[in-house]
Design brief:
about 375 residues, alpha+beta, Sulfite Oxidase, Chain A, domain 2, Immunoglobulin-like, globular, Nitrate reductase
Amino acid sequence: QVRKSKGFSWGAAGVSTALFTGPMMSEIIQMAKPLRRARYVYMEGADKLPNGYYGTSVKLNWVMDPNRGIMLAHKMNGEPLHPDHGRPLRAVIPGQIGGRSVKWLTKLIITESPSDNWYHINDNRVLPTMVTPEMSSKDPSWWHDERYAIYDLSVNSAAAYPQHNEELQISSTKATYTARGYAYGGGGRRITRVEISLDKGTSWRLANIEYPEDKYRDFESSLYGGRVDMYWRETSFCWCLWDLDIPVSDLEASDAILVRAMDEAMNIQPRDMYWSVLGMMNNPWFRIAISKNNGVLKFEHPTQPALIPGGWMERVKKEGGDLANGIWGEKSIGEAPREPTIIEEIDMRAKGLNKSIDITELRKHGTAEEPWFV
């Protein structure tokens, strides 16, 4: 944690790729014959949350652009949508954040202005980095500025191998190790390069890239009840997979593997994170720390998915390091010894409470009248 935000933790696990089936949203909108002033499409889901039903909007001209591939999906990977994926119908906005792809869709409304839904305004925003949580609470106008709303994904990449806590014998019979991972961009822009550095970004090596999406380009038939339309659309919405053979001796001489990607618009991942109130859209270089002990290399990812503990960022923070010092919290030359940071653990239990609940008692509270959340 660099600085406390109002968001929650994803780790490198908030992305996926799937094959959806359904009509294009533009076909439905055309039937409504939008008026001249129509500029946005508002979508609302059936999920009622503390501040009302979830809803958001996207620009009408995006919906009507066939290259954007915006659709209403009823199948995912050939199967009817599962309830947690939006059954029976959901919006799919390729190349944009998941918060725009409304699940359990109940409404499509053509509007003149962006949505005024609470969740459209107060979520999925990257406020300027100087805006603190306190400032954003005292001055709601920060949230109402549509310039700060997130739509297209930013360029991002991650390494899957080496895995977190994976160990490699330096004396291994293999002279090279194959690092692997994924990268993706936003708005249908293709990732054109993934680069790896073993010397803190002084020099870079070009990784191989595989584009699974391209395997569908020449397919002009039907699949899962829908017509595959990839043969004419040149957009790249899905992740690509990268790999690079690295000499084990080079890994031994390094203290970290750095990964960065660039798309066809020359958007490139920055070295450092851009802090914001919700902590969203962070896409700095992906870094795997390397430690050496008794002829063994051990790899450490920056974080673990969701709330799973572990990762070099957590370790550095506990050691008193400054993750925003420009060198990933490492000690600089001549730096004085650090004082370890004492992490105060929050006890969620009421003082003096000492009670065990068995499954029988828990099941008595599974109704809407008196539900228990576990």
